[in-house]
Amino acid sequence: MANNAETDIDARSLLLTRPRESAQRFLGELDAKLMAGVTVVVSPLIEIVAIGKKPNLSAFAGAIFTSAHAPPLAPCGEGKPAFCVGAGTARAARVRGWDVLLVAETAEDLVAQIKDSPTPLIHLSGRHRRGEIAERLSATGTETKVHVLYDQRPQALSGEAQQLLRGPTGVVVPLFSPRTAKLFYDQVTDLSKVFVIAISDAVAELVEGSGCHEVITARAPTGVEMRRSVEMRLRGTRLA
Length: 240
What we know:
This protein is of the alpha/beta class.
């Protein structure tokens, strides 16, 4: 889904605002030939900071992971079941020894698809989380606790990023969460040359009507569709 029928500005720059490791991984998965002609700036709006202690998992039958940031900070799974949101999260969990039984696209899908799971489960998460997964699962009989492994601390856009946004050409900005979208919106005064690629309707709603040149919602909330949307916009291809 896209707004703004006119795209008379060339979008030949890319601003990545994910945590640095995630941003570099996303960049490395984009078409190399295409990216050779694109100006790229990485300016994380969130820093992942480990907090607290790793939990004792002996009392839990399995874990829920909703971000790829969580498994590296969690205890090794040692074959315990894991229920994940996103393919990247699932890959990170497998590396840490978890037996991934479910890979859902969204938190909503995960809640709907967990059925007859051994309990209790533990949601190993960041301080800022959406979907109230533990609360909703517990309300339906799947006892689930939450353990916070890390904080997602806000960061200011770099001077290089602000200069890019003030430049003469359009800038493609993929946004992967409502919180990042708000942090971005709050720091940029002129969005007239910004092409936002939103991972979900919830993200798009935060920036629509803000003066962005265009807001595009990926066809599915996945890394594959975000890459597809970014590449198509950088090529100047109209997204349906």
